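User: I'm designing a mutation panel for Phosphatidic acid phosphatase type 2/haloperoxidase domain-containing protein and want to avoid disrupting the core. Could you give me a predicted structure to guide residue selection? Please restate the sequence first so the numbering is unambiguous.

Assistant: Good idea. Sequence first, for numbering, then the predicted structure tokens:
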Amino acid sequence: MAVLAESGSNPDVELLYDINGLAKDAPHWFDRGMEFVGEYGLLLAMVLLVLGCWWSVRRRGGEGAASSVAALVWAPLAAGLAVLVNVPIRGFVERPRPFVDHQGLDVLVSGKTDFSFVSDHATLTMALGVGLFVAHRRFGLAGIALALLEGFCRVYMGVHYPTDVVGGFALGTAVVLLLSPPATALLTPLMKAVERSPRAGWIVRRRTESDGRKDALLRSARKPVESEERDLAA
């Protein structure tokens, strides 16, 4: 990877200069906005999107609510796992940041001293986007779109090569999809148990009046049994 980064005829480097060159022609305020969006804004947007998806699934309810929430819980877990997997990958590849080997880049974020391949931001956002897609198609498409925008921003900011971003997209997607079957197999029964809980069931689906009546009937049915048990114990 380091050899590729040193080659000025490498399409990866050429695309880096083409995209980052947009930052040089853009107004200062626009670059500052892209800096915030690429560093923090899109990550925050992904968190809000996950919460919005959870709220939608919860309100919809139905028999598949537990499995949908289980898939949704897997999305951030997979994203965190993908970032952890990236730690040894970065240490093995040891690709320097683009601005270390190439002059003339407009670097919008200073202080980046770690290795470049693969992009944590791209890995994290794509894992969340694909995880959302598994849980809810409409929210997932929006998440994937935000991840693609995140990848563009990282190159625009001069802190990653395009292949760093593509590698992050591939890593995030692979972790989500490859581990999704066992993860959902473990999480779905857990979410079904949560759904049956009178106190925590709201996490999986919205409580309704019929749910309240069922809980009241269950409590009233338990009282005679509990009273008999106390009498026998006495």
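For picking mutation sites, this is relevant: The chain has one domain: 2-207. The two ends are 77 Å apart (CA to CA).
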